[in-house]
Design a protein that fits this description.
The protein has 10 helices and 9 strands. With 235 residues, it is of the alpha/beta class.
């Protein structure tokens, strides 16, 4: 893979991860959003996965109302819907990216955990995910299951709060990355994570002045919809 989990060499810079692809320029989690992000030369691309009915679908929500303006729950999606609404599968996205940048797979949900684990192991066997792939989730029990099955991947424990013990949740969970919301991250959390050998990735950062503060705190990477703006500043 051309990129790694290393931080930028510039102490006042950060790595830029395309949040659901270059989603300020194209529909989130779409082929176009991923193609643009790749062309921009981002450090990594993050996208959402629901494993439902035996398929790993690239969608954030549990229905298509917000993104496609139709009220179809993901568990009722048929093959014709995937074609009509151009909904990608995890295999298709990984094939497109083809190790050109870091991949962050955010697992949103699964209706069959053993089947999901087998699916991910098959992707590992074919090389579509590897030791530089990051698997993240707000569901830390789900991450635990993935860690046991794919011990050589990297893992990011997503949180939307500021823990009173700072980065210790990542230490106890054996997560490589503290993945934290931009409105609650603190310099103390960043410092504690680094002291414990953990990287800090912050979501979702679209304000340039906010991003500059995070760079001063030595945040390792930010997830952003505004990939072009952030790359101009920090790449």
């Amino acid at each position: 893979m051309s990129s790694s989990l290393s931080s930028s060499n510039n102490p006042l810079s950060m790595q830029i991860i395309a949040h659901r692809g270059a989603s300020a320029l194209a529909l989130e989690n779409s082929l176009k959003a991923f193609e643009i992000a790749l062309a921009q030369g981002v450090y990594g691309i993050e996208f959402d996965v629901h494993f439902v009915n035996g398929q790993a679908l690239i969608l954030h929500d549990t229905n298509l109302i917000r993104t496609h303006h139709v009220n179809i729950p993901i568990h009722r999606l048929l093959p014709k819907h995937l074609t009509e609404y151009q909904i990608l599968t995890l295999h298709e996205v990984l094939t497109l990216i083809n190790n050109q940048c870091l991949v962050n797979i955010e697992l949103k949900s699964t209706d069959n955990l053993p089947e999901l684990i087998m699916y991910l192991q098959e992707l590992w066997a074919t090389g579509l995910i590897d030791a530089n792939t990051v698997i993240s989730s707000f569901d830390h029990y789900l991450l635990d299951a993935c860690q046991h099955a794919l011990p050589d991947c990297h893992f990011g424990g997503l949180i939307g709060h500021l823990p009173k013990d700072l980065a210790q949740y990542a230490v106890s969970g054996n997560f490589d990355i503290v993945a934290v919301a931009s409105d609650i991250v603190s310099k103390a959390l960043v410092d504690d994570a680094h002291a414990n050998g953990k990287r800090v990735w912050v979501y979702t950062v679209d304000d340039l002045e906010e991003a500059k503060i995070f760079a001063q705190w030595q945040v390792d990477a930010i997830f952003t919809n505004q990939t072009d703006r952030m790359l101009n500043q920090f790449k």
